Give the backbone structure.
Amino acid sequence: MDNYQAKNLKTALTEIRNSMDEGDQSKLDLDLYEKVIDKVASYAVECDECKEYLIEMEVHIAQIQKEITSKNEINFKLHKQKVNEFTSHLTNQHNLVTEGYYLSIYMAIGTGIGLPFGLLLFDNIALGLPIGIGIGVAIGAGLDADAKEKGKVI
Ligand SMILES: [Zn+2]
C-alpha cells in the first residue's frame, strides 16, 4: 500500500522532470525530493505523521503538475518550504541526516581545534589548520559513510 503510494509519487515526479528544463529541475531539487519520498514511505507504516506527509506530497506534486500544464509560474518557495518540512521531520523524528551532514560539522570542529593546536605544538596557527581540517574531514566522512550504510542518510 505504502510502496504503491511512493511508486505513484515517483512516477509523477518523473513526469514533472521530463516536462521542465534543467534550470527548473535543479530549482525543485527533484533528486532530494525523490529520496525524501522513499524515506517517508518507509516510515509511514509506523509513523502517523509520515502517513499524512505522503498524502500531503500527493497534493503538492499534483499542484506542481497543474502549474506546469496551465503554464503558470511554479511556486518554488512553497515547494522549498514543503521539502524542508518533510526533511526536518525525518531528521528530528527518525534520526536521519542529510548528505554530508557530519562532514560539515566535523570540518568546523577541526578548524576550531586546529588553530590552538597549531599554536601549541608548532607555535604556528597556520600549521594547525590543515591538520585540524584533515582530522575533521576524516572523522566526518567516516561518520557519513557509516550513516549511509545504516540507511540513515536522506
Ligand atoms: Zn515520521
